[in-house]
Amino acid sequence: MSVARTTEVSASSGKGFEDAIQKGxxxxxxxxxxxxxxxxxEQKVIVKDGEVSEYRVTMKVSFVLKD
Length: 67
Prior knowledge:
By secondary structure, the chain is an alpha+beta fold.
């Protein structure tokens, strides 16, 4: 029997939402094994001087716990 856990992760990028997702998952995978998937809960942009300067995502990442 497997048991999974879900943890909320935030990540940002100056390029776009897709890049923020990739960076967040890649960084999370350095610490946590057996990642099963992620759900993007929120997307947000930071605006400076009338321009989008940063893209941010909040994700719920699920992973299987080691026996």
